[in-house]
């Protein structure tokens, strides 16, 4: 079965609900991340619904690359689900999150994916994910997307998720005279670039947020087909009385175009 066929028939094995329950159990047992790490706990609560959506779509894609892997939460989940996991990031992550990268044997390489070729041979992966990364690019997104296309095998799946430029939060901020991005003085006026091969990069801020049409254009120009772009619901994991706060997110999510993020899946022909 090809990666594409497997993704379309994912319910034959595990549903997203099944994977979510598995993630909660792994978290309870301390296998997903260090429960004493407040940063990781917040990441889990804010991202686990999205990560389970991705895991459901990719569950039969054996070899997976995470471009911009950061703390490694998604790869931790995928590794526990039996995937062979590879990671790339501009900053060295394994030493900061050893229980994920070292203990699970996730293969990490430092790489400036804006300008460096991905350090893999053609057609090496069944799937490549790029979660909340493209908005940090200083230069064009096209080089990376074409590299992702190259390292994917036939019928390989690419996943991209990015902030929605026209979400409720951004619209409300503009109406109130505020900008949608980071603090102007700290992140733009006085920000020092990361210098790499004679070029300047600003990876610690949002340099551009996206519309659905722009994500579709990027994937199409990069050569992908079967492009499916949608607005991602703001489902934060909450427990106990905290669940009441989910009502506000649910109300905002009633209008898809006001949702916080955009998620896309596409296939290499």
3D architecture notes:
The chain is of the alpha/beta class and 269 residues long. It has one domain: 3-Layer(aba) Sandwich (Rossmann fold), CATH 3.40.50. It has helices at residues 3-8, 16-28, 38-58, 73-80, 98-101, 142-151, 168-175, 184-189, 212-221, 246-252; strands spanning 63-67, 84-89, 107-110, 125-131, 152-163, 194-196, 199-201, 225-232, 261-267. The protein has a seven-stranded mixed sheet with strand order 3-2-1-4-5-9-8, with helices on both faces. A two-stranded antiparallel sheet has the order 6-7. A hairpin with a 2-residue loop joins strand 6 (194-196) and strand 7. Helix 2 runs antiparallel to helix 3 and helix 3 packs across helix 4. The longest helix has 21 residues, at 38-58. The model is unreliable at 1-11 (pLDDT under 50).
Short structural summary:
By secondary structure, the protein is an alpha/beta fold. It is 35% helix and 20% strand. A 7-stranded mixed beta sheet has the order 3-2-1-4-5-9-8, with helices on both faces.
Summarize the topology.
Elements (H helix, E strand, L loop, with lengths): L2 H6 L7 H13 L9 H21 L4 E5 L5 H8 L3 E6 L8 H4 L5 E4 L14 E7 L10 H10 E12 L4 H8 L8 H6 L4 E3 L2 E3 L10 H10 L3 E8 L13 H7 L8 E7 L2
Parallel strand pairs: 1-2, 1-4, 2-3, 4-5
Antiparallel strand pairs: 5-9, 6-7, 8-9
Helix pairs in contact: 2-3, 3-4
Number of helices: 10
Major β-sheet annotation: 7 strands, mixed
Which blocks of ≥5 consecutive residues have pLDDT under 50?
Answer: 1-11
CATH topology: Rossmann fold
**Could you tell me the mean pLDDT?**
92
- The CATH superfamily label reads Vaccinia Virus protein VP39
Q: What CATH first level would be assigned?
A: Alpha Beta
What multimeric state do the chains show?
Answer: single chain
Q: Give the CATH architecture.
A: 3-Layer(aba) Sandwich
As a whole number of angstroms, the C-alpha radius of gyration is 18 Å
Gross morphology is: globular
